[in-house]
Design goal:
The chain is of the alpha/beta class. Helices cover about 50% and strands about 15% of the residues. Strand 10, helix 12 and strand 11 form a beta-alpha-beta unit. Bound molecules: NADPH dihydro-nicotinamide-adenine-dinucleotide phosphate.
Length: about 450
């Protein structure tokens, strides 16, 4: 296993996030390999860490002043053992091949946990939609799709949204795909309801995270009601996580964006959350604007020189990191535990650095890793694909019910897999083992391809 990790590091030394994700998974599946010696002969680890296909392309587009810009586009088709590649597109200046590969790798196991037939992929661009007009975002999406369209399809690869890619971007991407292919198919998920989207898809990741948290709490005979919660981010996942926490009787004290965070001691209620949605989704503004309407709240500007994230220093019971990768380090994790946090449920992908995960696991708090806890989004994307194939729309209650069942089932799968390998209560091990075994068995069934 060490050889495999060191080969990956040697081959692509700059892909730090990818190394981090691989290292975590390989560490926890060690007992599976010991129990199944044939996996070694079949080189399953070597195959799982190598993408089936990596696409990198130029995206030239013109801004409103007539200036041409060139961004880089990516699509990593990681593994199609259990279904067509499936995973979001991220538009953010930090996007690199390393980030897309780590996300695609995580996606393989996450999708496997949903029990739906979806392989793993991820894509995106270093384009920054912030401050760009609608027309500029549209031209960028069209230029991006002008290359991507030849690699995707409803039975090949079905992208969705992620950071910087919401309903607006999915609309522009879909429009261009339809024009180029001359076909109306479910090639993207997260579509608008009026033209093939699914009810509950926008809410699914955040709602699913809270359903997963409720399942974890239930193992200790506890519930969310009355719990003080820290939420980071203020985008899609953070908004609907907050909404569901409020519905379940919890209190949300914080939200953030890349410029800083707000702390509202009185709690962010439904009305305040609606204001956040208006700031972020309609005005595309900054979270600091919250304090103009609610001056009792405090705004803290992000300081890149700080060695800790002050959002995680507030006293609370539960934490829902929902912004981005590596937003919690070991020091943050230690502070959280000391300040009463006994449940961390990840909306974002890999928000906790490996040293932070160690703190959570060692202290035996309830820690739900992203690949299990935030799988509700891709699960409902899978349900959107099913509805598209049938040319039907399921009612809201039906999709929500299916989402709840899937999250319950993922939780049970993690609990059972960790117990089977003597690591009771370790959701990281449970998620990695269950996701891995499923994918590897499918790969072996299909021969050396
Ligand atoms: P959005 O773009 O809607 O929101 C992202 C939020 O995180 C924004 O508040 C953004 O702030 C903040 N953020 C982004 N990058 C950084 C950074 N480097 N530092 C601090 N804050 C940052 O994205 P989503 O809500 O969809 O995604 C959030 C996380 O959830 C990601 O890790 C994503 O991979 C994961 N996820 C999303 C799913 C989905 O269905 N959407 C499914 C599963 C996982 P700002 O406004 O300043 O950019």
């Amino acid at each position: 296993m060490e050889q495999i990790v060191s080969r990956i590091v040697q081959r692509d030394p700059e892909q730090k996030e990818f190394h981090q994700a691989v290292h975590e998974v390989l560490e926890t599946v060690r007992p599976v390999l010991e129990r199944n010696p044939e996996f070694r002969k079949q080189a399953v680890l070597e195959r799982v860490v190598e993408p089936e296909r990596v696409l990198m392309f130029r995206v030239p587009w013109m801004d409103d002043q007539g200036q041409v810009h060139v961004n880089r586009g990516f699509r990593v088709e990681m593994n199609s053992a259990i279904g067509p590649y499936k995973g979001g597109l991220r538009f953010h200046p930090s996007v690199s091949l390393s980030i897309i590969k780590f996300l695609a790798f995580e996606q393989v196991f996450k999708n496997s946990l949903t029990t739906l037939h979806m392989g793993g992929g991820k894509g995106g661009s270093d384009f920054d939609p912030k401050g760009r007009s609608d027309a500029e975002v549209m031209r960028f999406c069209q230029a991006f799709m002008a290359e991507l369209f030849r690699h995707i399809g409803p039975n090949t690869d079905v992208p969705a949204g992620d950071i910087g890619v919401g309903g607006r971007e999915i609309g522009y991407l879909f429009g261009m795909y339809k024009k180029l292919r001359n076909e109306f198919t479910g090639v993207l998920t997260g579509k608008s309801l009026a033209w093939g989207g699914s009810l509950i898809r926008p809410e699914a990741t955040g709602y699913g995270v809270v359903y997963f948290a409720a399942e974890m709490l239930a193992t200790r005979g506890d519930r969310l009601e009355g719990k003080n919660c820290l939420v980071s981010g203020s985008g899609n996942v953070a908004q609907f996580t907050t909404e569901k926490i409020l519905e379940m009787g919890g209190r949300v004290l914080t939200l953030s964006d890349s410029s800083g965070y707000i702390f509202d001691e009185e709690g962010i209620d439904h009305e305040k959350l609606n204001h956040v949605k208006e700031i972020k989704n309609i005005r595309r503004g900054r979270i600091r604007e919250y304090c103009q309407r609610y001056p009792a709240a405090v705004y803290v500007e992000a300081d890149p020189d700080l060695e800790y994230n002050p959002l995680w220093t507030h006293r609370a019971d539960c934490a829902f990191p929902s912004a981005t990768q590596n937003e919690i380090n070991a020091r943050d994790a230690q502070t959280m535990v000391e300040n009463g946090v006994f449940l961390v449920c990840e909306g974002a992908n890999m928000p906790s650095a490996p040293s932070a995960v160690e703190v959570f696991v060692e202290q035996k708090i309830l820690y739900g890793p992203g690949k299990a806890a935030n799988a509700g989004g891709v699960a409902v994307s899978g349900l959107e694909m099913a509805q598209n194939s049938m040319r039907l729309n399921w009612p809201r209650a039906e999709v929500d019910e299916r989402l709840q069942q899937i999250m319950k089932c993922i939780h049970k799968t993690c609990v059972d897999a960790s117990a089977e390998y003597g690591m009771e209560g370790n959701y990281v091990a449970g998620a990695n083992i269950a996701g891995f075994v499923n994918v590897v068995n499918a790969m072996l069934d299909q021969g050396l391809v």
